[in-house]
Design a protein that fits this description.
The protein is elongated. The protein has seven helices and twelve strands. By secondary structure, the chain is an alpha+beta fold. Among the domains are: 100-173, Trypsin-like serine proteases (Thrombin, subunit H, Beta Barrel); 188-288, Trypsin-like serine proteases (Thrombin, subunit H). The strands form two sheets. Strands 1-2-3-6-5-4 form a six-stranded antiparallel beta barrel. A six-stranded antiparallel barrel has the order 7-8-9-12-11-10.
């Protein structure tokens, strides 16, 4: 006869609890299991982010950000910054600084009708041997010549070259300073009417004074009283007075482009009225053996 199949024991079924049954079912659903695992792991991070957000909100309440600047406040700040800015030095100051170490004060003692006592003029050192260019009329017929350099060194000097046709002389100090600073020479042929012109010298004994103006003309002729006419001169309106003779005429770069020689004054008084002359350095430098520019 047929055989009956055994059925499960009812006692075993009843012994299984509902909780264990639920866990067994959950373990049999992988997606749900992974979601719960992720939630357990992500919980601390979510809590930390929420805490940071709350902390930031509280900080902004306690320490609110500054209010935006108004247009007037921005303008005031810009104006204050511009007012406190240090402007660059004037071009004339740069020119003076360039020539100052090379400037020389010339003092002479003479005799006779032309020299009744001490007189003075200017000069400029033009090479490393200490050669000093000046105007011949500053030292002509002098019994003694004393030169004072920018560092305060004083020395007797003698004339080593004379060129009366261009009113140029070259002096050499007998005891020059330990450090000689020759001036930088420029090209007068590169000048134009209206270019900046600077004169540095010792007018009326006012040591190392500077005046500024412009180049007024070229190829001028100047005839000093009792001397031959000098041709090919540079005309400037920078102030020139007694004591400036022999000093340097400078361009905007601080380079020597001429040697001051004289002024025109219809009143025949020794004051400047706006017309002064200088021998181009390309001509004057030849007396010191300097090559053309």
């Amino acid at each position: 006869m047929g055989r009956l199949i055994d059925s499960p024991d009812n006692s075993e079924i009843q012994s299984a609890s509902p909780a264990s049954t639920w866990r067994s079912r959950v373990t049999q659903i992988p997606a749900i299991n992974r979601g719960l695992t992720f939630a357990r792991r992500a919980g601390p991070y979510v809590f930390g982010a929420l805490a940071a957000f709350v902390g930031l909100a509280l900080y902004n309440q306690v320490f609110p950000p500054p209010a935006p600047l108004t247009t007037d406040e921005v303008n005031d700040a810009v104006a204050a910054a511009m007012a406190s800015a240090t402007p660059p030095p004037a071009q004339s100051a740069l020119v003076y600084a360039a020539i100052r170490p090379s400037l020389v004060l010339i003092q002479t003692q003479g005799s006779g009708d032309e020299h009744t006592g001490n007189s003075l003029g200017s000069g400029v050192v033009v090479d490393l041997t200490g050669a000093i260019l000046t105007s011949l009329h500053v030292v002509d017929d002098a019994q003694a010549i004393t030169v004072t350099f920018a560092d305060g060194t004083q020395s007797a000097a003698q004339i080593v070259v004379e060129q009366p046709e261009i009113d140029i002389a070259v002096l050499q100090a007998l005891t020059p300073p330990a450090q000689i600073v020759p001036a930088v020479l420029g090209n007068p042929n590169a000048l134009n009417v209206g270019d900046d012109a600077y004169v540095v010298g010792n007018p009326f004994g006012l040591y190392s004074s500077m005046s500024a103006g412009v180049v007024s003309g070229f190829d001028r002729i100047f005839e000093p009283e009792g001397s031959v006419a000098i041709e090919g001169l540079i005309q400037v309106d920078a102030a020139i007075n007694p004591g400036n003779s022999g000093g340097p005429l400078l361009n905007r770069a601080g380079q020597v482009v001429g040697i001051v020689t004289g002024i025109i004054n219809p009143t025949e008084q020794e004051v400047f009225i706006g017309i002064g002359f200088a021998v181009p350095i390309t001509v004057a430098g030849g007396a010191a053996g300097l090559p053309p520019y």
